[in-house]
Amino acid sequence: MTTSATTPVQGDDLVPGHGDLSYGVSHYDLDLTYRQVGNHLSGTATLDVVVHAPTRVLTLDLYALRVSEVRLNGARSSRWQHRRGRLSVRLNEVLPVGHALRLVVRYAGTPRMVPGPDGEVGWEELTDGVLVAAQPYGAPSWFPCNDRPSDKATYRICVRTSSAYVVIANGRLTSRTSRASTTSWVYELSRPMASYLATVQIGRYVTTPVPGLHADAVPVAIVHPPARRAGVAVAFTRQAEMLEAFVSLFGPYPFDGYTVVVTDDPLEIPIEAQTLSTFGSNYLRADWSAERLIAHELAHQWFGNSVTASRWRDIWLHEGFACYAEWLWSEWRWQHGSGGSPAATHAAAHWGRLRRLPQDLVLADPTARTMFDDRVYKRGALFLHAIRSTAGDVPFFAMLRAWATDHADGSVTTEEFVDFAAERLGPRLRPLADAWLYERGLPDLPVS
Questions:
Q1: Is the pLDDT of residue 318 over 70?
Q2: Alpha carbon 235 to chain centroid distance?
Q3: Domain range enclosing 372
């Protein structure tokens, strides 16, 4: 990699103006105070930074909020500029590869969602509370970050707000301290996470444990408004069995726990973050259209959160895998005599639907406007089913578990997946991958 020592290296071509490849962040410490009335957020972000390419400028992403102070290694800096969602901090000298430093940013204001090709995302006010759904470029709506999917860090998130509200964030709750009318909630995440997966959820919530979990299972909880308890019981009755199914198919659950947040507001779509997922009250149903999304978001803990695409153009490595997990859950239910149908049935139905749609999308090379197109989800899932049909169940699931385990906490590309799968399943995988990943026309679906 070559670069000017004073120019940030573009983070991702599908999300221009976000991220800087010249450095990485190993840890974020976010100390935040939120006032519900007026939607006011103030914070101090401490970033442990490591230089990846010689640079004299660190460029961070921070949208709409106002910066009041920047410190480098404890010393106050006056050589920074914040405009158009980018905070540029000029260093005293060109720093070499491997140099480590600590950057502190103090900021405040009214957080707003970040606009982009896929709409507005990020910090969002609810009728009574807040959620953060940042995929793919909404993280700068609430903290300064190196906003690219390949830069994964550990986190400590402290949020102070009115004691009338519950705060949920990524990782494990390590402390909760109340003083007068304010409560401070501290969450710590020891496993690395991409910035777009960082989240805060604030609401008047109660917690319902998930029934049916084994004593040694990963702890799972559902957080929701008190009035939604009956709906939660209906919609998430199979959550424990779903976790059991995915552990058997994908390998050990990659984190310390899993939380589902249900908002009182309806939401257009559910969204996953690392260690948790968020659903609107409109998904509290027992039908397949809601159940498949519960499976989809849970599967993202393996594929998307633990194993994360290095580039947004490889988003099928998240969405294709999670979509196929929906079909695998249906197949699990079918195998256990509780409804559902084989994955092959879903594959055939969706292949037929895709066949009738425009053939103008390349799965491994979408545009900024098509990276979340439903064809990416379904064609990615169909590619995985094509691999399974070609290789056979035993080799395919062994490969899938190895992929999730060997790349846990890592960042990956499409090329790495193809190499990984071909090494385990043989050279016949490569022409199959070329057809599904790099050609526009929809290939025929192999018959197992």
A1: yes
A2: 22
A3: 309-438
> At which of 251, 279, 301 does a domain end?
301
DSSP per-residue codes, 426-439: -TTHHHHHHHHHH-
Q: 230 is written with which tokens?
A: 């009956």
Q: Could you tell me if 250 and 302 are in contact, meaning their C-beta atoms sit under 8 angstroms apart?
A: yes
Q: Which residues contact 356 (CB under 8 A, 6 or more apart)?
A: none
The tokens describing 122, both together, are 């990020």
Domain shared by 145 and 45, yes or no:
yes
- Both 80 and 170 in one domain: the answer is yes
Q: Is residue 18 part of a domain?
A: no
Looking at the 3D structure of the chain, how many domains does it have?
3
* C-beta contacts of 8-13 below 8 A and 24+ residues apart: 8/55, 8/57, 8/59, 8/88, 9/53, 11/146, 11/147, 11/148, 11/151, 12/148, 12/149, 12/311, 12/312, 13/313
Please report whether residue 14 resides in a domain. Answer: no
- C-beta atoms surrounding 82 within 10 Å: 18
Element of type H or E holding 297 = helix 288-299
Q: Read off the tokens for 78.
A: 């006056």
Say if residues 59 and 20 touch (Cβ distance below 8 Å). Answer: yes
SS (H, E, C) 52-80: CCCEEEEEEECCCCEEEEEEECCEEECCE
Query: Residues of 355-378 as b/e, b for ≥16 C-beta within 10 angstroms?
Result: eeeeeebebbebebebbbbebbbb
* Same structural domain, 140 and 284: no
16 falls within a domain: no
- Residue finishing a domain among 301, 331, 351: 301
Structure tokens at 370: 């098509």
Q: Give the CA dihedral 209, 214, 217, 221, nearest 10 degrees.
A: -10
Tell me, yes or no, if the pTM score tops 0.85. yes
Whether the per-residue pLDDT at 3 is higher than 50: the answer is no
Give the tens place of pLDDT for each residue, 142-159.
999 999 999 999 999 999
Q: Is residue 153 part of a domain?
A: yes
